[in-house]
């Protein structure tokens, strides 16, 4: 198992990546690829077993406009076995242009802060408890997004910026971020986002991330400082919140062992702090080949009254 698979998100230079997609059509200027996954997931919590299985299907198209400029489109849907209207979730619907300058897309696509939370969001199921993002910084519709990746003396600089338009139902917002990855294995990034919630309230969120890859080991940290960007257990808006995540992974042959700690607190809860997220998680994922993996993941929840959770999963990528 190549260690780069763990840190893939840190070096990613595109908004959406399709690692195992198969090319189903190509000519001198155009190509079309189809990919996705079948993922079976059994969630064990409080004595019950819940089926959280899902299927994702994506279609990626690209056509050359000139020798240096191309057009692209991407669609991805997720299907579950729920008995309601949420059976199909359109995760990505976007198109745009790209070139040496980067890529510009419009539609339903990623915001700019996900590449920072990906530093510590490395587990097959759990983790990312303190990495929640405001809508404008996450995957959302009505979104004009830019991403560019640039080589700087052997190192890599990735920048992202996006703007979400006001459509009358959802207010406008934006986010921007950057990652600088050194060839020696150290990477660090920062980003910021804002979005109006109503005439008097604005959600604000800042992230900082750092990671280091050495041999078969990977370690990373994430810090978040936010205003009006979180909800508590009663679904009430949290005026001020801060949190952090730590992640570590070790690759042994074709198996990756990982662990994370996630903590998020309400720093304005009636004059005293209140925990929103407090959890440890461990994970073991075995890659039989590039297409198939299985995993086991356990989360130890430190919040009073919250249950631990154990997940068994198998995933086939195509």
Automatic annotation (TrEMBL):
Domain of life the protein comes from: Bacteria
Keyword Membrane tagged: yes
Main localization (coarse): membrane
Region forming the signal peptide: 1-21
Gene3D superfamilies tied to this protein: Porin
Transmembrane residue ranges: none
Lineage, uppermost ranks: Bacteria, Pseudomonadati, Pseudomonadota, Gammaproteobacteria, Vibrionales
UniProtKB keywords: Membrane, Signal
Protein name: Porin
